[in-house]
Amino acid sequence: MEGNPKVWLRTVLLSATVLTLAACGAVEVPVAAAPPSIWSQAPTPEPITTWSQAPAPKEPTLKASPPESTPPPVLESPSEAPAPEVRPSTSVPDKTIAPSPGKGAVLTQLQTIKVKGRAPKTGYERALFGKGWKDPDRNGCDARNDILRRDLTNLSTRPGTQGCMITSGVLDDPFTGVRIDFVRGQGTSMAVQIDHLVPLSDAWQKGAQQLSEDQRLEFANDPLNLLAVDGPSNASKGDSDAATWLPPRKSFRCVYVARQTAVKAKYGLWMTRAEHDAIGNILSSQCPEQQVPAG
Fold this sequence. Notes:
It is a single chain. The chain is α+β, with helices and mostly antiparallel strands. It has eight helices and five strands. A three-stranded antiparallel beta sheet has the order 1-2-3. Strand 2 (166-172) and strand 3 form a beta hairpin. Helix 7 packs across helix 8. The chain is elongated. 20% of the residues are buried. Mean pLDDT is 79; it is low at 20-54 and 59-101.
């Protein structure tokens, strides 16, 4: 220790004396207290976090999933189904188009007839359709007298024939519109003839060759195919079809071609292209709603 040696020696001796006395319990030596902590040197306490100051918890990040399709509502009954929305049509109808024929129209039936070429007339004989007039309906009268009774008025019959044989009557000829007084007898009977609307020869060339003998006999005596007409007009027609001959009376042509079409449909006969077009033109231009005749 630097300074006065005497002072230093006195201090040493005093300290030794005090220690000796303390060891003997004579005096208490005060223990030096730890130096007080200075506030500015104390560790800064962590601030207390209150709930209002706590950070809001982060929401978990979810991956976006594709939207699910919403199933249609289940209807308990058909009556609960929503009515479809009806919107007025803005289309303008084409006035140039003719109305469609009805279900029973001959134009509809005409479309069922096959169109083919005319087969050869080779082998045709009237006898292939039966010899003379027959009685296919078995009413006791042959087909000729049945048609005279159907188509004539003011009839007279021969006694003893059960009213079958027609001896006289009046015909309003469908081919010409002329009134014809029919009298049965040699030289007069031919004034009124029974026409096959589809001639037998024409039928032979358009499918009748494939019919059985009984079918051809039925064809020749079928009331649907028979009509009482003016004799000379029937002779001029011959075995012509609608492409080459039509009744002079134009107002009867619709009925005429309707009967021909019905006969060919009934027996599965065909038409040539010219015949089919001729019938189609008459029906389309004059009587598109002409109905199929019964029979």
